[in-house]
Records
---
Amino acid sequence: MDFGLSEDQIMLDETLRSFLADQVSIERIRSLREESCPNHRDIWKELAELGATGILVPEEHGGSELSLLDAAVVAWTLGHAVTPSPFLGSSILATVALRDLSHKAIPGWLGGIASGETVFGVAATELFSKREEAGIRIEGGTLHGKAMMALDACNADFILVGVDPQTLAVVRRDADGVEVERLRTTDATRCTSEIILKDTAPEAVFENVGPTVQRMLEAGRITLAAETLGACEAMIEQAVAYAKERKQFNRVIGSFQAVKHMCSEMIADLEPARSLLWYAAHSFNAIPDETPLMSCHALAHASEIGREIASVATQVHGGIGWTDDQNLHFWFKRIGVARHLLGGPEFLRDRAAELQGLAKAS
Amino acid sequence: MDLEYGQEYEAFRQEVRSFLDNNKLKVKGRAPSELTRQQYNDWLELQIEHGYWARTIPKQYGGYGAEPDLMHTVIMDEEFNRAGVMRGSPSQGPSMLVPTLLEHGTEEQKQRWIGPTMRGEVRWCQGYSEPGSGSDLASLQTSAREDGDDFLINGQKIWTSTADRSDMIFVLVRTEPEAPKHSGISYILLDMKTEGLEVQPLRTMSGDIGENSFNQVFFKDVRVPQSSVVGHRGEGWKIANTTLKHERNSLSSNAEGTLFRLMRLMEKETINGVSAMANPVYRDRLMKLQARVLAMKHHAMRLLTCSLKQENPGVAGLVTKLQNCQLGFDMASLAIDVMGELGALYDHTKYERDKGFWQAHSFFSLGLIIGGGTAQIQKNIISERGLGLPREPKPAKA
Ligand SMILES: Cc1cc2nc3c(=O)[nH]c(=O)nc-3n(C[C@H](O)[C@H](O)[C@H](O)COP(=O)(O)OP(=O)(O)OC[C@H]3O[C@@H](n4cnc5c(N)ncnc54)[C@H](O)[C@@H]3O)c2cc1C
């Protein structure tokens, strides 16, 4: 019995943290928010050099073929540093799906993800939530329709499209009839977009792949939970540091019990959520039967405590927490927007109950 | 308890309703910032003319001059909220300065400022907080040194909402440097165009959207006549506390209007073809919020009654700000949740609902939880002043 990160995972975490602190500082991220898409290819390349982008890619295609727990360590760190990157779309959702499927182009695609040459966007929202008449259909061999809140698609080379819970397709970003329009959210560090497909010829279509679609969503949810919790950790660290430094009434505010309790409640929420996340991520490779349920709870729970931590950590800062200059809002918004991707907490809990066969109130 | 709506009140309600039917198109669904200044001021003036704004302010100061009456206030609020129209103006002049002047101002100050402020002709900002003095406001350092009949003000204010678009500032300064910290402060009215006064805007977390702007205000030898003091010199702390009391009661008192807006959103919004209102989980959350809104609405009636009878509501009067601000944040949170993926949208992007109102409202409500005395300071006040718990011991002098 050994419940915790391995030495290698701890090292991975440390390497990535120090790289991001040096190379993808918050100043650099601030400058990216003016761009049409925050997923800068340079950052993606640099992450590839560290072996992060191909973390789940099979070794034969140039990846490191590690576990989802390793990927969760990376995602945590990316959330902690609010790094903009297509990690969720390319390294998790697309990779988990593609490595399960067979097609002659897949080795090249996966190899490209591992080397940082290739970026995949993913249109997955309509697999579980449809609004505004969204949805993609295949008619006469080509793709039609629209997808909303697709991930990492603006700057991508390919887009993995969730057609329905049994069917996936891949299209080139620059193929005929593909329109991608950024949908701006409060979070300037994440790429979300609307995709409109008009008679688009796919590179590949995969039918009857329900289990793959589910695995892909599970991995995505666990990864998103890791990102959210990483961002929470960073907000708590900033709040605690500020509480040790800021003085009011001739004392550091951290000496007020009220402020101590705000900080301790945040960390008391975070640490068990981290343990749940580790278990959920571990289950993906080791106990896959448990992953559907664990992935729902891990993300729903992260989203709920995330909302609270984001608010409280801001409150610890007082007025300065509300300014743009303080930068705290980058984390606040990363957490706030992640809540709405790959299923909100109410949806995920409903699904969690359903997975256990718990009766629905009628 | 007497809540009979006699005939007179029914008639009043009809009158408010037909006023709104006839006039609401001028402003409905539009934030004050979307109207021109003239349109907005005309709208305020029209409301004063009918007694729906500045209702109990004496006529000689530009108000409507009615006797205070709880049921009239309730009816006006209900009808305006139902129509989705903001009653009066939420800005700091009417909500904070005017009640302060009514209580502490000289006859000349009342004559000069109350009418134009209620009509929106003069816009005010509140210059209290400083970089080193937020929760510990009484430690403020901005100084006003006597110079003949004037004061010369030096120092800096921060987090000053709307300073960049205000005509005047009511500002707390230290006039008696030798006095203990609470008794050396004066409350001064000052023109924002005075030489030596400089405003620097600060971007907020909500970016460029939202009504609130945030600023720093710098004072360098800013000259102001001593007659600009409200109340007596050195009494600014006491006077500021009456202002803060008004601020804390006014913050977020529009909860019912926000709730109606939330309900309309939930009726329209669909996920997988099902309306958000039909989702039992969302509906339950809405009903919990409605209970809180109703509690705060009736709580306001109770507090208003106390103030009309000049009774002290005790601890019940101290909890309003804490409750209302969190309630505002929680309503925005539900709205954002029912919109699902689209709840995250911002910056006037395609598919954004209500022009980004809910995200902006979420940021703004979080700001209100902090502004005007943080939630933690409110809890200290409730427990110490309201419940008589002992104050925190002072730290030993280093
Ligand atoms: C949206 C907004 C609008 C504002 N508008 C104005 C305005 O127009 N004019 C103006 O003058 N000011 C304005 N303010 C400033 C506001 O009043 C201050 O931010 C607030 O009083 C807190 O002060 P601070 O920012 O210095 O935080 P600090 O006082 O430094 O507080 C930091 C943290 O310490 C906690 N803390 C401090 N002392 C104690 C204690 N004794 N016990 C327990 N906890 C404590 C606080 O609760 C907070 O969590 C505004 C602020 C906001 C956010």
---
Amino acid sequence: MRILVDLNKCQLYAQCCFLAPDVFKLEGEEVLVYHPAPDETMRERVLRAAAACPVLAIVVEPVGADSSP
Amino acid sequence: MSAPCDVVIVGASLAGLRAAEALREGGYAGRLTLVGDEPHAPYDRPPLSKQVLSGWVRPQETFLPRLHPIAGAWRLGVAASGLDTAAQRVDLADGTALDYDRLIIATGTRARPWPVEAEAGLGGMHLLRTLDHAAALTAALEAKPSRVLVVGAGFTGSEVASACRDRGIEVTVVEQGSTPLAAVLGPVVGGHAAILQRRAGVDLRCGVSVTSLFGDVQGRVRGARLSDGNVVEADVVVACLGAVRNTEWLAGSGVQAGPAGVPCDAACRALSADGAPTDDIFVCGDVSHFHHPLAGERRIALEHWGNAINQARVAAANLLRPGSATNATALPAFWSMQFGANFKSVGLPSHGEQVMIVQGALETGRFVAAYGRGGRIVGAIAVNQAQWLPFYEQQILAGAAFPPDWRVVDQPQGATPQPAGFPGATPGAAYAGA
Ligand SMILES: Cc1cc2nc3c(=O)[nH]c(=O)nc-3n(C[C@H](O)[C@H](O)[C@H](O)COP(=O)(O)OP(=O)(O)OC[C@H]3O[C@@H](n4cnc5c(N)ncnc54)[C@H](O)[C@@H]3O)c2cc1C
Ligand code: SF4
């Protein structure tokens, strides 16, 4: 699956890191790193993280999205 | 003018993709063609110098999530080579051509190449702008080089150095300015960036430039001679010299374009030779050159992720409904991560005449620096203080006074404005800039 975090919006609340620790990680005090292509089996957790993000910074590509070319 | 029914977008990266999606979301049902000279589907560049170089994410795992069906034709791996605005036709490098009734220019920038051609061709020389660059550089780092030399300590160069240290690789950074990031944030915040680099074990040389590179008989780079007479031995060299705008294909087309980019108005409309906005050609992303109220009379270029997305939306909206959107209200913003620190910026720090630490302290590594010009705050940079940035965004939008008269927590005692110290830089210049 494909995701991204709008890091202009992200305010390092780190909710996502608790809900999907394999995908979102806090490094140092305030550095959020994320995996842009998590395994499909993570979808549910990633969606929960996206819903929990207070600033809605996490974007998740919907299932069956147009991925042409 | 008749309703659009044949849209061509040149440049199939962040701005081009988001413009295409915004067109469909806005109800556009006509033909849509995306032209991109890279062979890849649109991917995200910020991870390339961060998660990809660190080894966590593979280069081909950076493809951008799709937010809306595009139902378009893709012409990837072929460059647009010319534009005829009278005939409304884009010529492609493979000899074919595309007719349009609306055109979106989103050709972005490329990495500035190493200026000496013979040296640029040495094995072990790298640039970082594309997925292919990132794949090549990651492979070079995985081969455990004895030392990496990074030339240019803008954001990209600093992030490359940070990734090298994360991997335990020795790295020398050569920067001709007085500190890293001096061109974008000035030497005061740049001084903090220098401390971060040295604390992480970077051999940082500022106020110095590379005069030549040397290689071995196999044609592999072996090191560099510096302007101070020193020699640095390195088996990997990464040139992070900033960006060149991809405007050559527009030469002689009738729309204004040049080394500074493609000028456009607040509706993202390209300008014809006489300076009047066109009504069928739009510009978005890194290639654009535009007026922002914060910058006054000067045009600015913003090589920032957020600007590409904003302008893509504005261009698409105005293409479908002329006059329906403006780029003038969005404040520039960007982020960078390096050496365990999160840099977040809003407004135009590089437009500041003065800078002042308004929260926290440089020594603690957690602070906000505000930039002022003409008695107003024009920009702010937060280091490990992301949650404060929206407050400064409001201050900038409100045209609040500088030096500030507001009260916030953690305000340093006796702080005073200092000269911002920009070396005559273009406001908002180069994300990658050195
Ligand atoms: C390593 C790296 C790290 C970054 N990190 C950050 C960050 O942390 N924060 C931030 O705010 N910004 C960051 N940026 C900047 C951000 O990625 C850019 O602002 C963004 O990519 C701009 O998108 P764009 O679509 O306008 O241009 P580009 O991404 O440059 O895309 C333009 C596309 O057009 C293609 N093209 C060019 N000429 C032609 C032609 N004649 N015909 C057809 N196609 C053509 C190009 O090959 C390219 O694919 C980073 C950039 C890089 C390179
Ligand atoms: S929950 Fe949202 S704001 Fe918090 S760290 Fe994750 S992405 Fe950022």
